[in-house]
Amino acid sequence: MTGVTGPTGPTVTANNARLVNSGIETVPSNAPVTLDNALINGSAIQHTNNSTTVRLAPNQTYFASYETTASSPTGATANLGAALALNGIPISGSATNGVVTAGNSVSLSSSAVFSTSAGTNLTLINSTGVAENFSGTVLNIIKLA
User: What DSSP assignment string belongs to 49-63?
Assistant: First the structure.
């Protein structure tokens, strides 16, 4: 015997976003990547097309992942990398690096779970000391709690 079914609770992942930069962008050292809205659901994630900053609701927990292809704008051999950053500070464990040889590219991807406070902005940054070309960039964000 079963009891009465209670009301349906909220969808846990109702706030999510997929932001992209399908072109090639030369990003200076430690600067953020420009992104466009591909999909945003809910109100806890806000982003303006053709901008670098994602605004996140305070006192929440999020999962974010990114993937991009990086190459040297000069075609030289270089150590290239990317990281997620909150208010300009890289999130520990979200950085990934790769060495490219002249004329080649490297795939970079990582993810992080993090909490927000008031006025939290998320960016995907060039985490190295040299300019990089980023292409096919995707940033996915899901509010967990």
Answer: TTBS-EEE-SS-EEE
Question: Which two structure tokens, joined as six digits, stand for 136?
Answer: 């096919």
pTM for the complete prediction? 0.91
Buried residues in 6-15 as b, exposed as e (16+ CB within 10 A): eeeeeeeeeb
CA-to-CA dists, residue 130 to 72, 89, 110, 123, angstroms: 8, 18, 20, 18
Residue reference for tokens 């945003």: 40
Between 2.60.120.40, 3.40.1190.20, 1.10.540.10, 1.20.970.10, what CATH number should domain 16-143 receive? Answer: 2.60.120.40
The tokens describing 16, both together, are: 């999510």
pLDDT in tens, 38-94: 899 999 999 999 999 999 999 999 999 999 999 999 999 999 999 999 999 999 999
What are the sequence ranges of the domains in the chain?
Answer: 16-143
Q: Is the dihedral of CA 21, 22, 23, 26 positive or negative?
A: positive
